[in-house]
Specification:
This protein has three helices and 33 strands. The chain has 441 residues and is mainly beta. Strands 4, 5, 6, 7 and 8 form a five-stranded antiparallel beta sheet that branches.
Length: 441
């Protein structure tokens, strides 16, 4: 009984303390506790080449630095120091100041992958701060965050989606039975949509066999599979318009079966439009106007534009953006990612290891070249991060929330150097530290 009342008083003290902090916040000016903000482009340099001594690495571009050369910190960390491991880095997802990067070692012999994991990189400190182990042979592909506690990772070789507990950094559940080489994944309206390319390499025959490709729909609240939607051969990238439509790009068999765009109604989970392409499409990205920019075939690598809302072409294969309007010598080809400001970032990887790797920035209003950054070997995967000083993130999970405030309250009154809850660095944990955390919520 005494323990119960002691615990009750303990929580009551925290409650009154938190209320007091919130009231104090209302009385202080907006300039209190202002912190530095960094706008970054994070780039995966995906080339692993044992003969050239190259391993997959990470580069960071400071988008607030006007000098294009000084803006790039190239190959700030590598995902392996052993070139013969052939470690692949195949995905990139960012949550707060943490980047989550699925990787695996691909043996030369063709044996199953090993060392499968998700590296966690602190973008502020620019170091690997942890990893999430994935079962060997699973070959993790893409990560999406369901909420503060849970993420999904597609695992192609295991034909599964793994559910990960973010704070504990471990796999808690396997979603199985409805996947065939799951790769891409996107979230919309409480559901996850997973693309299944459904191919299998036959080493004896020396060819790839393609099966029925599909999109698997998962209820993210229960982790239950709701539906499997058949789509044309070799579904790859999958994305959504933020409202009601999921867009799937299929690439065919790289021979006589060509690509398609498939539009799925996210309310009914039915296919509402299938657009036949006369080529094997490259990478794609969707802007805020629901315009899908897509690379053409390798023979004709210019940009096409498809209006998802109107279900029609703005620029088709006969009218591509082949060159930058102000620099015809710079190629318009490679990976596509839209920045928050609406500009299009195009990664141009040199897979031969010759050092001709670029990230180019296009103003899509007039197709002009705004900037060119030199990146690392086979710079091909790019995402954006806004990094704010993160001393308020007490438990270093990538977000500032009420958990950080509760943890910090336990240190109230402690003095000395290096206390995790000493947000303002004055070697004492007091109400000012709690206020700084509260303002970052």
């Amino acid at each position: 009984m005494n323990k119960f009342f002691s615990t009750q008083r303990h929580f009551s003290c925290y409650s009154f303390l938190l209320i007091g902090v919130l009231l104090f916040i209302l009385t202080i000016g907006p300039a209190f506790g202002q912190t530095e903000v960094q706008d970054l482009a994070v780039v995966i340099n995906a080339l692993t080449h044992p003969d050239l001594g190259i391993t997959a690495s990470l580069s960071i571009i400071d988008l607030m630095e006007p000098n294009e050369n000084r803006a790039v910190d190239n190959e700030i960390l590598h995902f392996s120091n052993q070139v013969l491991q052939r470690r692949r880095a195949v995905g990139l997802s960012i949550r707060g100041h943490l980047a989550y990067i699925p990787t695996f070692n691909l043996p030369v012999t063709g044996a199953p992958s090993n060392g499968d994991n998700i590296f966690i990189v602190n973008l502020e400190d620019r170091e690997i701060v942890g990893e999430i182990p994935i079962q060997e042979g699973a070959t993790p592909q893409q990560v999406v965050f369901i909420n503060d506690q849970k993420l999904y990772v597609t695992c192609a070789a295991a034909h599964e989606v793994h559910v990960v507990d973010i704070p504990n950094r471990n796999v808690t559940k396997l979603i199985t039975g409805f996947f065939n080489k799951p790769t891409g994944i996107t979230l919309l309206n409480g559901k996850a949509y997973v693309s299944n390319p459904a191919w299998e390499w036959d080493p004896e025959a020396g060819r790839t066999t393609y099966y029925q490709s599909s999109v698997t729909v998962i209820d993210t609240a229960t982790d239950a599979v709701l539906k499997s939607i058949p789509v044309p051969t070799n579904a790859s990238e999958i994305l959504n318009d933020g409202e009601s439509t999921v867009i799937v790009k299929t690439v065919g068999n790289y021979n006589d079966v060509l690509g398609h765009l498939v539009l799925i109604d996210a309310t009914t989970d039915e296919v509402v439009e299938t657009v036949k392409l006369g080529f094997t499409p490259g990478s794609a990205a969707l802007n805020s106007e629901k315009q899908l920019f897509m690379q053409g075939s390798w023979q004709n690598p210019g940009l096409l534009i498809y209006d998802v809302a109107a279900q029609g072409w703005i620029r088709d294969e006969d009218d591509t953006i082949a060159n930058f309007s102000n620099d015809a010598d710079a190629a318009v080809s490679g990976g596509l990612t839209f920045a928050p400001d609406g500009n299009l970032y195009i990664t141009q990887p040199d897979w031969g290891g010759g050092g001709q790797d670029y990230v180019r920035v296009m103003d899509v209003m007039d197709a002009s070249l705004l900037k060119t950054y030199r990146a690392g070997p086979a710079a091909s995967i790019l995402a954006f991060a806004q990094v704010i000083s993160r001393r308020e993130d007490i438990n270093n999970d990538g977000v500032v929330n009420i958990s950080d405030l509760v943890i910090a309250a336990r240190f109230l009154g402690d003095q000395g150097a290096g206390i995790v809850a000493d947000v303002n660095g004055d070697e004492v944990v007091n109400i000012l530290d709690l206020v700084l955390i509260s303002r970052a919520l």
